[in-house]
Design goal:
The chain has 156 residues and is of the alpha+beta class. It has a single domain (2-142), classed as Aminopeptidase (3-Layer(aba) Sandwich). It has helices at residues 12-28, 38-50, 105-119, 134-142; strands at 2-6, 54-61, 64-75, 87-96, 125-127. It has a five-stranded mixed sheet, with helices on both faces.
C-alpha cells in the first residue's frame, strides 16, 4: 500500500537520495543542461516545506520514501493573466523510484499537487518536460496536460 503525505523534515535525507537519482537520470540520459547542487537542494527543501508558495508531497511504501512531487506557485509576467489570475502553478519535479514505476504512484503524487493548487485558488498548472523524455510527456498528456510551449536553449 502506498501513502501520499506532505513531506516532513525527517524526510530530507531520503528526499535527497531520490533527487540525486532523478537529476542523474535527467542529466545523463535526457541531456538536462544544468548542474545539480545537492547542498543547495538540502537547504531549499527545508525552506520549501514551510513555504506557503510550495507543496512537497512524498509517496511512502513499506516505511520507505519511494517518490515525491514538488510544486510551486509563480507570478505570471506583469503583462499576462490567465482569466483574472496573475499566478500559475508549476510542477517542478515529480519522481518515483524505478521499483514502483507503473503502480500509479506518480498519478497519486500529481493529484495531490493538483489538489493543493486548487485549494490555493490556482486554476492553471504547467510542467516542464525535457524533449528527450517522451515517457514524461505521455504521462502528463494522459493526465490532461497539453503541450503548449517549446523552450529552446543555445550555448554561446
Amino acid at each position: 500500500m502506498v501513502t501520499i503525505r506532505p513531506a516532513q523534515e525527517q524526510d530530507i535525507s531520503s528526499l535527497l537520495k531520490l533527487y540525486d537519482t532523478l537529476y542523474a537520470l535527467l542529466i545523463d540520459e535526457y541531456g538536462y543542461p544544468f548542474s545539480f547542487h545537492r547542498e543547495e537542494n538540502e537547504k531549499m527543501l527545508a525552506v520549501q516545506m514551510k513555504s506557503r508558495f510550495c507543496c512537497l508531497y512524498v509517496a511512502v511504501a513499506e516505511e520507505q520514501l519511494i517518490g515525491f512531487v514538488h510544486g510551486s506557485v509563480s507570478k505570471l509576467e506583469r503583462r499576462l493573466t490567465y482569466g483574472d489570475q496573475k499566478t500559475i502553478g508549476r510542477i517542478d519535479d515529480i519522481y518515483v523510484n524505478d521499483d514502483y514505476q507503473g503502480w500509479g504512484v506518480a498519478a497519486l503524487l500529481l493529484q495531490a499537487a493538483e489538489d493543493w493548487f486548487s485549494e490555493e485558488g490556482i486554476s492553471l498548472v504547467e510542467s516542464y518536460i525535457l524533449c528527450a523524455n517522451p515517457r514524461s510527456l505521455r504521462f502528463h498528456e494522459n493526465h490532461g496536460y497539453e503541450a503548449a510551449v517549446y523552450r529552446t536553449l543555445k550555448k554561446l
